[in-house]
Every structure is written in C-alpha cells, then in structure tokens.
Amino acid sequence: MTIVIDRKWWKESVMYQIYPRSFMDSNNDGIGDIRGIIDKVDHIASLGVDIIWLSPVYMSPNDDNGYDISDYTKIHPEFGTMEDLEELLNILHSKGMKLIMDLVVNHSSDEHQWFLEAKKSKDNPYRNYYHWYPGKNDQEPNNWVSFFGGSAWEYDENTDEYYLHLFTRKQPDLNWENPKVREEIYKMMRFWLDKGIDGFRMDVISLISKPEDFGDGDISEFNKLLIQKYANGPRIHEYLKEMHEKVLSHYDIMTVGEGPGITKELANDYIGKDRNELNMIFQLDLMFIDFGPEGKFDYQPFKRREVKQLLMAWDHALGDEGWNNIFLDNHDFPRLVSRFGNDKEFRIQSAKLFAILLLTFKGTPCIYQGTEIGMTNVKFDGLSEYRDVETLNMYQKYVVEGDMNEADFLKIAHIQGRDNVRTPMQWNDSENAGFSEGDPWIKVNPNFREINVEKDKESDDSIFSFYQDLLHFRKNNLALIYGSLTDHDPDHDFVLAYSRKLEGKGYFIICNMSNESLDYHLPNNLDLNKILKSNYSDSTILNSKATMRPWEAMIIRIET
Ligand code: ISL
Ligand code: CA
Fold first, then answer.
1. Residues linked to residue 511 through DSSP beta bridges, in sequence order
2. Which residues, by Cβ under 5 Å, contact ligand 2, an ion?
3. Of residues 8, 23, 95, 87, the one with CA closest to residue 53
4. Which ligand is nearest to the CA of 294?
5. 556 in ligand 1 pocket by Cβ < 6 Å?
6. Other Cβ atoms within 10 Å of 117 Cβ, number
7. Separation of CA 501 and ligand 2 centre (Å)
8. Mean pLDDT by 10-residue block, N- to C-terminus, for the chain (560 residues)?
9. Ligand lying nearest the CA atom of residue 226
C-alpha cells in the first residue's frame, strides 16, 4: 500500500530565526543590522537551513525591540534601508533559501500614525482603530493584567478614557472588529508579499479577536486569564479565513502563527488541512512549562517527564490533520541548552541531543540563532545590564512594588529573562565576540572565547558540524519528515524514545535527558542494530541494549 503524503515545501524545510539587533553589526554602532545579516548569509547557508525568519526590522520606538511598530512599511534606519532588505531577499533566493517576516498586528506602537490620530479625540476617524473604554468608578474598565505586569489599561487624560494594551503601554491593541483596520493590514501584507517575501510569522495572532464582553477575568492564574479572555476570541477564525481568502491564498507562501492560549485541543481549528487559515502554529505550552500562576517570573522548576509528555501530547493532538512546528527556544525564552540541557559539564552533549530531537521530531524545525553553537544563558551582574522591557517591568512589580530582594530577582532573571537569548551572536574570540567594533547595545556573554562560531567551524566534532550533518541527513528524508511518530516509552522519567516510520521503514530515536548513565532496553521487535547518528563517537548497542551515557542520543535504523 502506498501512503499518500501531502507534500509541501514548508514541511520539508528547516527554519532559522534571526533576532537582527543581536546578529551582526556591519557599521559598528553596536546594533545588529541587515547588512550584517548579508555578511553572514554564508554562515546560515553552510548550516543547511532553508528559511530565515527575521524578527521585526520595521520603524519602531523600540519599547519592545521592534515588536511595537510605528510604520509597517518602513525599515528602521538602525537596521538599514529597504534596498538592504531587498538585497538580502535576492541573495537568499539566489541560494535557494526563503525569507519570512514578522507580522505584528495584534497591536501597533503608540507612536503609529493611527494611534496618534486616535488619541486626539473621541470622534477622530481613527478612534476605533483601537479599544477605548470609559473607566468604571474612576478605575480601569476591568481587572485585566498585561503580559508584562501591571494593568492592561492606560488612562488618557485628554479624552478621559482608557485604551487596552495586552503588552506594554506603548503597544495599544488594534481593534480587528473595525473592517478598516483589517483592510489596512491586508494591504500592508500584500505590500510585503508583492516584494517577494515567502511568508509571515504572525506575532500573538491568537489574541486579535477580543471577547464581546470586556468584563473581569479570573486573574488568579495568568494562563487561565489568557485562555478565557485574551486568546481564541469569538471572531478569530472569521478573521483568519478572511485574511486567507483576501491575501494569503494568492501567494505560494508559508505562515506560522504564534499561539499563546491555543490549547492542543483547539490547535487544529487554526491549522487543520481544510481550514484555510494558517499552516502551523508555535505552541507555547512547552515554553510556559516553568511558569507559576503569575507567569514567567513566578518560576517553578519543571520535571523532564513533562517535557516528554507535552511534546508527545501535541503530536498526538495534531494527528494527520495539522502540521507542527518544533522549537525549543526563541527570542522570548531561555537558551535551550541552559533550560532543558546541562550548560556546564555536558553542554556539548546536551546541545547535540536537542539537535537530534529538533531535527527528528515531527514538524518543521526552527533553530534560533546561536543554538547551532550551543550558546548559553547569561548571568548579568546587575539590573543595569538588563535591557528587556519585560525584565525591567518585572523588577518594578516584584522588587520596587513587591517584597522580593534584588539578589533573588536577579537569580530569576538569569533563569527566565529574555535577555538570555538576546546577547550578541558569538562569531569569534575577538573583542565583542566579533559582533561589533562599537559598544554593543547589550553586553556580550563573557563565555564567547569558549563558545563561538569560528571555533566550532574548526572542529568536525562540534555542535555546529553536528547540526550540519543532521540537516543534511534530514533533507529529502521522507521518513523523518512525514513518517508517523510513535512514543515507545511514555512512562520513563527522562528517556525519550520514539520512532519515525513511513511504509514500515524508518528510525528509532533515543535521548537520555539526564546526567546519569544507564542501560536502556530497546524494543526487540524492530531489529535495531545500526546506529546512524549519535552524539558520542562510540555509541553501542548489544543484544537490544543501548548503553547510554549522560545526555547520549542516537538515531538507529529500523530494519523491519
Ligand atoms: O515571553 C513571554 C511573556 O512572559 C511570552 O508570553 C510572550 O510575551 C508571548 O509569547 C508573546 O510574544 C510575542 O509578542 C510580544 C513580544 O514582546 C515578543 O517578543 C513576541 O515574540 C509582543 O509583541
Ligand atoms: Ca549597526
């Protein structure tokens, strides 16, 4: 029997995320820029990835590093010019690679022309581009809190009303109920697609439809509030279908929606094959794994078993209906080797283990810049070294207004803060890691002399070459891309064991996510003898038993 697979280029590709501010600075003003990316295209191409996702490079006052956009069709001069962007796009296309851009349309900047108009008066034609409400008993319209702490409402004295901002007060939420807003957004999307970009990563797209009633929510747990009030609003699918019909369906592109609040049960409503909405979502359950009731800075250590369970449960929930995206870090969450691995004595082994996981799990993998060389979290000395608005707001909440002491706060920031992943890319062991000859906008991780691209490229045993090799192995390997995924050991606390099979052939993958050694019994009905890839040079299987050292991982051929 031949199985019909629904082949798509975006399923067969691997993504690489660039956070432009921190990637490469070409003019030594301390800020990464588009020409810097152009200078480093060969690095990305040599890795073997297919699609670059570029975090925002648009005009922005940078309250949230570009996720607050004041002009959607202009490039911020600190990143370069539109010509630079077009040149990057051409170079990537000439190398057979693709470029997807960030689409941030749940909110704009408060310095966007629309908002500048909207706040002028209640009858301004742009007023209902945003969500304005009168206060209730001289207080905010309801008890909603922002993702970054504090109220989700900001009072405007001039018009005596509040506007909604689910993120910072400089990121007012756009009112998608207004058809004019939607048309403006679609027009802007066409502007980019007509330039030839290959798709969008859609920022917090699950939040664009607001509930009909702006009543109080249950704020005892942020995640509850998120699911009940902020995400999956009543008109979300109507909007996405409209966007698909009016814009997306006219181009051969890919879309991946960032989906806070999308549960695995709801995911296929967004990405199901015949839904005509999105191709994939970034699910955040795994990224929120260590969030307490108050969220990220209410840190609660997780169990490795939960990591396994979440990965498997999502694969199962999507089934053959939806297509997943596989990522373990990005510009909002800690470095994967520090969070899920061991960034000390087993940094190299655990980074390679997660390379195997990323590239053999079912879905389109996305690699965040620096992960290909095993970059780690950073331990800044004091608050003054932090740049991220989330971390600074949380300091306000927990230390200035709360009773946490500074040292405890810094401990959490070191584990959870977004600046962990925003330190400059480590290119070599020269000053500022080769990122800039100027003063970088954020400090370089002091471990750059040990961990850098140049050093990794010199060795054929490095994390970088391991990624290269696996990317090559994955390419055109239909069993790894489309093969069904079966969990072979749901009960083990820290060994992840799964198979990927297409028409009876395929691979068995085992990952020992621990600092311990153990003998692992392989299922004996699969004839597992030939180790194809491993993160140790001398991995062995004997009589269906794999001897596994700390963080050892293998891809084994399934013979029968
Ligand atoms: O890091 C988080 C908060 O603790 C996440 O919940 C994050 O805010 C969420 O994933 C949404 O992220 C996206 O939208 C934000 C922006 O700051 C992030 O960088 C972006 O990825 C607002 O645009
Ligand atoms: Ca620069």
1. 496, 553
2. 25, 27, 29, 31, 33
3. 23
4. 1
5. no
6. 14
7. 46
8. 83 98 98 98 98 98 98 98 98 98 99 98 98 95 96 98 98 98 98 98 98 94 96 98 98 98 98 97 98 97 97 97 98 98 98 98 98 98 97 97 97 98 98 98 98 97 98 97 97 98 94 98 89 97 94 93
9. 1
